[in-house]
Design brief:
The chain has about 350 residues and is mainly β. The protein has one domain: Porin (Beta Barrel). About 10% of the residues lie in helices and about 55% in strands. It contains 3 helices and 19 strands. It has a 16-stranded antiparallel beta barrel with strand order 1-2-3-4-5-6-7-8-9-10-11-12-13-14-16-19. A hairpin with a 6-residue loop joins strand 11 and strand 12. The chain is globular. The termini are far apart.
């Protein structure tokens, strides 16, 4: 009888130990590593000559990234994360021309840091984030793995890339979300050079069919409002829209809108077009009080973790701002890009 009691006692103890071990395993923080590598080839089809790049005019769109002639490099991106039950961090490092352009406001030694932040889940519906994080404005992002097109829009190029500050995210319901933030001036991610701060606000609405986000950045002499939305029109057809307006910043007063139409032809191939209108009031991106309409056709081909992106882009200015290899001025520039993006 005593032996039976001892056996039962040992069994209960063993079961308790297993349950405890499972609970600890479920709560144990998880360390992750991910990232990407991208490279590309670019050439002008009309309106410019790569041979004359150093001496003749503007021979590439003035949007960010993917502007170098010939065979060129994007970046190597390494993202390390540590996620616990309540807290975690993200360290996002970039190496190469695309990464250097993304963190242009940082000096040597710090110009490989794309994101560096820690977060704490106060409740299931309330999260605090402190540090350097990529902007929540706009349709496109720095990493090419999350963009349909390889080249980027003017709105993305001259809007914010990253912020450093304190952000609070609230889940209001299964469809509505809210984020508020106080941050350094846009793209000053290492420190605050002026002791001025920017307030940020995002109101989000999301369903299984798509989402819409209204974003605002505001300070004493700066204001930007941005609408980003995207919806599945069918199982294979998608429509995205981005519209933005900015005033009072060193990157200029501008406004623009873009539409993104994408069709999944198969599990491997997709085709899509981005049409963007962009107007610059201060002459930072293009000539002052002028505009550009850029049309980009892309056809990503995916094989496992590798995506090949052939792309044709036409930039049409409202003035003669492009110059070809013979020195003839014109208003349009067409170019071809072939990019390879590998994610892990």
């Amino acid at each position: 009888m005593n032996n039976l009691k001892l056996i039962k006692k040992n069994m209960i103890f063993a079961i308790a130990m297993v349950i405890s071990a499972v609970a600890v395993a479920q709560e144990a923080p998880a360390f992750t590593i991910s990232g990407s590598v991208d490279t590309y080839f670019r050439t002008n089809l009309s309106g410019g000559s790569n041979d004359a790049m150093d001496t003749i005019g503007t021979l590439a769109p003035t949007s960010s990234f993917a502007n170098a002639p010939g065979f060129s490099l994007g970046m190597a991106n390494l993202v390390m994360g540590y996620e616990g039950e309540k807290a975690g961090f993200v360290a996002d490092l970039v190496f190469g021309p695309r990464g250097a352009d993304a963190v242009f406001a940082s000096g040597p030694a710090l110009n490989i840091v794309n994101q560096l932040y820690a977060y704490y889940n106060v409740t299931d519906n309330f999260k605090l984030t402190l540090g350097n994080f990529n902007t929540f404005l706009g349709y496109e992002v720095i990493s090419p793995t999350a963009n349909f097109n390889y080249s980027t829009s003017y709105m993305f190029s001259y809007g914010p890339f990253s912020h450093t500050g304190l952000k609070a995210d609230f889940t209001l319901s299964n469809k509505w979300s809210l984020a508020v933030a106080v941050m350094n001036p846009t793209d000053y991610t290492d420190f605050n050079p002026s002791n001025d701060y920017v307030g940020g606000l995002q109101i989000g609405y999301s369903t299984d069919a798509g989402s819409a986000y209204l974003n605002v950045l505001s300070s004493e002499d700066f204001f930007q409002i941005d609408l980003t939305t995207g919806w599945d029109l069918s199982e294979s057809f998608y429509l995205g829209i981005n519209a933005t307006s900015q005033t009072g910043d060193a990157s200029g007063d501008f406004y623009g809108a873009a539409g993104y139409l994408q069709l999944a032809v198969s599990d491997v191939v997709a085709i899509g077009v981005r049409g963007e209108y962009f107007s610059d009031g201060n002459g930072v991106a293009i000539a002052g009080d002028e505009s550009v309409f850029a049309t980009t056709f892309s056809a990503p081909i995916t094989s496992g973790s590798l995506t090949i992106i052939p792309e044709i882009r036409l930039d049409a200015l409202s003035y003669d701002g492009f110059v070809d290899g013979e020195g003839t001025a014109g208003s349009s520039l067409s170019s071809f890009v072939l990019a390879a993006v590998y994610s892990f």
